Amino acid sequence: MSVLDWVRDPSHWTGDDGIPMRTLQHAQISLESVAIGAVIALPIGVALGHYGKFGNLAINISNAGRAVPSFGILIIAFQLFGLGDTPVVIALVALAIPPMVTNSYVGLTEVDKDVRDAARGMGYRELPQLMRIELPLAVPLVMAGIRTSAVQVIATATVAAFIGGGGLGRFIVDGYATQIYPAVAAGAVAVALLAVGTDFALGGLERILVPRGVRSERSRMAQRVTMFKAG
What we know:
mainly alpha, MetI-like fold, 10 helices, disordered C terminus
């Protein structure tokens, strides 16, 4: 049986074990993990970047978190919470936090000091300055962190299958166990497509959120770089 034959089989498109349901489970776990990670990471990174304090410490701690394997966190969480989505979400949240902390911090610190001074000169207080001036300018880097986290989480969410969870990882784990290798390949391709699709969707959201002036400046810079390379 080829991968295409396996995918075309109508029985793989219905029921709790079908491709649509497994994809929905995978997307739900990933979305929950990224959302929780964003709620934790973005305020920390934004606040540290805005005030410019303790940023290196936060980034070092964040980078240390990257060194901890998600599967190890999953096993520890499984011992504490047992079966279910909770151990998986804990492991994926830990994976999602570092890129968002780092990028949001860097994005805020990269805002031009002259822009900050001009905002203060116009009478902006701390919160309005952050929300109306600094964050819009930092959106490209902040969104880059979210996109990185989302792709990593989707790719790693397959570990849920190792503790009896759902998602597309079931096709990979069960396929290996039963030696149905077309299912393994189909599961891997589905995870890759979901990750790529999510990245494109977040890229579209980024283009909506980035102020028009920032987009224009980035386009002019890209054109100058292209002309320089061509010359």
